[in-house]
C-alpha cells in the first residue's frame, strides 16, 4: 500500500508531466550554466516576479476548464488598479479600498463577461476580446492617461513587503493556490466547472446550473485580476493607465502548458503552477544570460503556439490522428465547390 502511493502520485501528474520534466531540466541547465541563478535572492526575485502571472493563471485555469478563455484579464487588472487609486484618493481607508478593489474585479468579470457568455450564450472569444478593448478605453478615460500614484503604506507592504522573512507576494501566491485547490477538489462548484467544460448540454440535463457556473467562473477570474492589481500597484506605488494584454496570453499559455485542455473539462491548478514556474524560470534564466527582452517575447509566443499544438495533439490521441483529421477536413472543404458546381449543372 505504501509503495503504491508514489506510483499513484506520479500517475496523477500525467497531464502536466511534460512541463514538469522540462521545468526540471531547464532549472538544472540554468543552475549549471548561469552563475547566480540558484542564489536565494534570485530565486526570491523569480517567485515575486511571477506573482501577478501566478494569480491570473489560477483564475484563468477555471475559465479554461469550463471551455472558455478570458482575454480581458489584463484590462481588468488595469481597471481595478485605477479604481484602487481613485478610492484611496477619495479618502477610503486602505483596508476598505483593498477589499473593494478585489470585489470590483470580480464584479466586472462576472457582470460583463459572465453574464454575456453564460446568460446570452455569446462566444467567449468575442465577448472577452470586446470587453478587453472596451475596458482598455475606460482605463484611459478614467485615468486621463495619467499614472495614478498611491502612497498608502499597506499597499507598499503588499507589493514590496515581507512577513516572517518571506515576501508578501509569495504569501499571496500560496493563499490563492490553497483557495483554488479547495475550489477544485472540495466544492460542488469545482465539480460543476468540469461538467460544464466537458459538455454544457449534458451538464444542463444533469441539473447543473450552467449559467450560474459560467458567471461564477468569470467572476473568479475577475477576483484574481483584482488581487493581481493590488500586487501591481503596491509594487510600483502607482496605477498605470497602460494595459499589458500580453500577460493575459502568458496566463493562458501557463494554463495550457500545465495540462488544462483548451477544449475544456480537463486539467487543474496543480499543473498551472508548473506552467507558471516554467515561464518564470525561462524568462529569468534568459535575463541572466543577457538575452534581450524582445527575444524573450518571441520565445514566449512560440511557447504559446506549442502549448496549443500540444493540447490539440493530446486531444486527438497523437500526431498521426491529428494529421489524419486535418487531411479529412481539407478533403471535405475541397469537395464542397465541386458539389455545388455539380448541383448547378444538373439543374
TrEMBL record:
Highest taxon, organism lineage: Bacteria
Q: What GO cellular component term, any one, is given?
A: plasma membrane
Mind telling me which residue stretches traverse the membrane in this protein? 51-84, 96-116, 122-142, 163-183, 215-233, 254-282
Q: How does it sit in the membrane?
A: Multi-pass membrane protein
**Which Pfam families does the annotation name?**
BPD_transp_2
Q: What is this protein called?
A: Ribose/xylose/arabinose/galactoside ABC-type transport system permease subunit
Q: Which UniProt keywords apply?
A: Cell membrane, Membrane, Transmembrane, Transmembrane helix
What is the annotated localization of this protein?
Cell membrane
Q: Name one GO molecular function term.
A: transmembrane transporter activity
